[in-house]
Structures are given as C-alpha cells and as structure tokens.
C-alpha cells in the first residue's frame, strides 16, 4: 500500500516533534526546512494534527508546537487511518453491490488487505519511529 505524501509528511512531522525535548517548541518553518517540504502544505498538516489532538500549539512570539500525546501509545495504524482516506472503496461498493445484488469480492478483498495493513502498522508506535531514526537532531533549549 502506498500512503499519500500528506500522511508521510504528518508522520515525519510527529517524528521530528517527538525527537525534541519536552520543553522545546517546534515551528512549521523549522520542520519545513529540516525535511525540505513546502511550508503551506505543512501548515495544513500541523492544523490537522492539532485538531486530532496529537500536537498542541502555543501562541505568541516564541510559540510553536509540542507533542500532546504519549508517543508510546500512538499506534501507527490508527494514526494512518485518521489521516488517509481508506474508505475510498465504499463509494464504488454501494454502486457495484446494488448492480449485482451481492457483495463484490474485489471490495471485500481490498477491505481485508487494508485491515491487515492497519493491523500490522498498529504493532508499531510513534516512539518506535523515533528510536529507529536517530538522525533527527535535537534542539538545544535556551
């Protein structure tokens, strides 16, 4: 399965924020510069992660974002499910099932594969991602 750039950028954003000390605030610009990603695209991702409760924003001149969850409890499959549109097949499912008057096996197989993917990804946490990618530098707090 191929995840969208949006989801990959969101995962990398959370990895970066999690790699920082708990007292440190991270800005959109900082993550954009580190990964070489478009800042406008990242702003939408930060907004969504904040809305989902994974990060929290601190306003003001020295504001930024920090992790608002325990990274050991963030299962990657659940996170991907919230960020990806995995219900794409349901649009076709209703139309096809109505035409054939029985469940479409293709839809069932795709749903089964997606469920297996999510289940496998749920074996890993956000903490696992950071531990496996120690090349993210930690900022020093002033």
Automatic annotation (TrEMBL):
The keyword DNA-binding applies. Its cofactor is [2Fe-2S] cluster. Transmembrane segments: none annotated. Keywords: DNA-binding. PROSITE patterns: HTH_RRF2_1, HTH_RRF2_2. NCBIfam families: rrf2_super. This is HTH-type transcriptional regulator NsrR.
């Amino acid at each position: 399965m191929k995840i969208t750039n949006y989801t990959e950028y969101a995962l990398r954003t959370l990895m970066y924020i999690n790699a920082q000390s708990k007292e440190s605030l991270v800005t959109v610009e900082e993550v954009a510069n580190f990964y070489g990603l478009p800042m406008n695209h990242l702003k939408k991702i930060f907004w969504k992660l904040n809305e989902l409760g994974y990060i929290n924003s601190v306003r003001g001149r020295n504001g930024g974002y920090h992790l608002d969850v325990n990274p050991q409890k963030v299962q990657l499959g659940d996170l991907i499910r919230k960020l990806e549109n995995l219900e794409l097949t349901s649009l076709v499912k209703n139309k096809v099932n109505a035409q054939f008057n029985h469940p479409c096996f293709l839809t069932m197989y795709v749903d089964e594969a997606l469920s297996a993917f999510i289940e496998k990804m749920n074996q890993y946490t956000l903490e696992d991602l950071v531990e496996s990618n120690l090349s993210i530098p930690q900022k020093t707090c002033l």
